[in-house]
Amino acid sequence: MHSLQFTAESSSNGVLERDFTVGGIPGVLWSPTSRTADRAPAILMAHGGGNHKKHPAMSGRAQRLVTGCGFHVAVIDAPGHGDRPRTAHDEAEIAELFRARAAGEPEGPIIVRYNDHLAQLAVPEYQAALDALQELPEIGTDGPVGFWGINMGTAIGVPFVAIEPRISAAVFGQHWPDVLAEKAKQITIPIEFDMQWDDEHISREEGLALFDAFASKEKSLHVNSGKHKELPRFEADSAVRFFARHLGAAVTAKA
């Protein structure tokens, strides 16, 4: 079992940001600066394809969860992303994606295949990160944990949550059902799911098929008009309220 090693620390606007490594995997943990002896719930997040742990989408969501709910939020770089080197396999898949994009060919089959490969590597890394995070006194092993991942974050998150009983609620969205539907059938916790009605990559039928596959008794489908990259920012506020409702926190006006 690997322990968490903090490598850098800074704070601003009520948020403490700490870089860490666990088993050589780089990550970041955001926490309230006004920490007390009381433990608080934790949210694991996974970033989108081509991004990294401190992408504005990650830091922005973390800021909402920390200042609005008092939660701890952690992200690790996916394989081949952020501060992690790309392998020859990564380079080949990325080159094939760019080739298909330039030729006007469907990107979905390549992304589904590549994301499945990354998920097989990332799921045990997320389990190790959660083990290490729960060793921290401010998080502990007895508090609720949530998961938030869209796009590639869903590709990693669905198989992770399917085998991880410590996750109490999750936000997913914007991915194909091809590989994930069977794993989604194993998930019964509360789910919030985002999709774009005019997504140029993922058809409505595909998005609805993945949502339908979750076995959760409580699951909410959030559909907005717009293309793949036009997911409204207010869906982040909805996700914060979702986690507050299920993990136990009152959302302040800052959220």
TrEMBL record:
Domain of life where this protein originates: Bacteria
Any GO MF annotation of the entry: hydrolase activity
Keywords: Hydrolase
Protein name from the UniProt record: Alpha/beta hydrolase
